[in-house]
Amino acid sequence: MLRMSKLTDYGTLVLAQLAASEGRLASAHQVSVDTHLSLPTVSKLLKSLVRAGLAVSQRGARGGYALSRPAEKISAAEILDALEGPLAITECSSAPGLCGLESSCLVGRAWQRINVSIREALDEVSLADLQQPAGPSLPPDRWKHAIRQSIKH
């Protein structure tokens, strides 16, 4: 099953909280309180997000953290890359030559196309989009059709 880690889920919450601060610096403690996450977890995530260039930090008594750019300019793909590493649903999806069966594999190319489709979809969703209230989701009977359509293109 494709699933992001709990830490990545929490990282998205931290970024959303920084976005809600509307450019004001927020301390790690305040983000912890606002997200109901432990301070050590928030601190660890903030360090990773700063290292990845998604957040900025300022030291000092009036220091804290903020998004490095507007939430509309941060994609879900960037968030996943920062906290999970590059998206790869199979070995051959991450880079050529990593799988010993690549030359004789009958399904690798399809998985690579699926990987590209997923990446493109994640690139189209911004942090601002993630913060929107949940609307109706795609009905389960439409999932197969949507996936097949994305593979054909």
Describe, in short, the structure shown.
It is built from eight helices and two strands, in the order H-H-H-E-E-H-H-H-H-H.
Detailed description of the structure:
The chain is elongated and about 60 Å long. The protein is built from eight helices and two strands, in the order H-H-H-E-E-H-H-H-H-H. The chain has 153 residues and is mainly alpha-helical. The protein has a single domain (6-152), classed as Orthogonal Bundle (Arc Repressor Mutant, subunit A).
Give the SSE layout.
Layout: H1 6-20, H2 28-35, H3 39-51, E1 55-58, E2 64-67, H4 76-84, H5 91-94, H6 108-124, H7 127-130, H8 140-152
Which tags fit this structure?
single chain; about 150 residues; mainly alpha; Arc Repressor Mutant, subunit A; two-stranded antiparallel sheet; 8 helices; about 55% helix
Number of helices: 8
Helix content: 40-55%
CATH top level class name: Mainly Alpha
> How would you sum up the global shape?
elongated
CATH fold-type name: Arc Repressor Mutant, subunit A
- SSE string: HHHEEHHHHH
Radius of gyration: 18 Å
- Largest sheet strand order: 1-2
- Indicate the proportion of strand residues: 5-15%
Overall tally of domains:
1
* Sheet/helix structural class: mainly alpha
Count every beta strand, where a strand is a DSSP E run of 2 or more residues.
2
Distance between the termini: 23 Å
Proper CATH architecture: Orthogonal Bundle
CATH superfamily: Winged helix-like DNA-binding domain superfamily/Winged helix DNA-binding domain
Major beta sheet summary = 2 strands, antiparallel
